Amino acid sequence: MAEFLSQFRNFGLRSAIDIIVVAVVFYQFYMLIKRTRAVQLVKGVMVLLVVFLLAKFFQLTSITWLLDKLIQMFVIAIPVVFQPELRKALEQLGRGRFFTRHPSAPGVDTLEQVVEELVRCTQVLSKNRIGALIVLERQTGVQDFVETGIKIDGMVSSEFLVNIFIPNTPLHDGAVIIRRDRVAAAGCFLPLSENPNINKELGTRHRAALGLTEITDSLALVVSEETGAISIGIDGALTRFTDEKTLQELLLRELDVKTISSSVIPFWRW
After folding, report:
1. Of 23, 29, 99, 136, whose CB count within 10 A is highest?
2. What EC number(s) does its UniProt record assign (predicted)?
3. CB of 70 within 8 A of CB of 48?
């Protein structure tokens, strides 16, 4: 106790600045990878670290040895796994944009408006048999796929989305990705599902919707240009021939509109 108090007395302004700078750098780096799938890898490493500490505390020799080797391997693998994020961080640091403010989550009213605009948009596209693929980002970031398209950062509106998917326009091919209440990008390329049991009638848009929802928790809305049918992909499964009311209820439920808070977000959902 005396040793702890002596160290606390030596804690000065320089130490405080040191801790604050390190905390800010870690926070900015976390916000940088938050919108990508890399954040899931970070959570996995943290779980392994907690298990390692518990195994060491309870003197579980075999588990401790195994996790120790895994952690050593991760130390070598981290620069490879996070190579895109590290490069982006260095680029932003060079441009002086590393220390920037990050947008907060939208409120309930905003998300309800987004759902309403999406339902209106899909109904217009379905009636006119215009093919479309719209992705709604949730907890797992899809920044990797945003980078493959044309960045927009525009408000979500049915008129805007319909205009994007008009045939023979520059952005009608590919997917539109919506983040919070903004259209993040259009013309994005998504991974196709490799599931061999997919219905042979489904085209590239449906396969892309399934492919993305298999590896992320995103929602994917698909409008078929052949039949005008509206489908929604969730967790690698496709719900086809969705009517207006069902689509709205499903979106409100999956986006958790009734319980989301713009001010309090549990740390386990960061």
Report:
1. 136
2. 2.7.7.85
3. yes
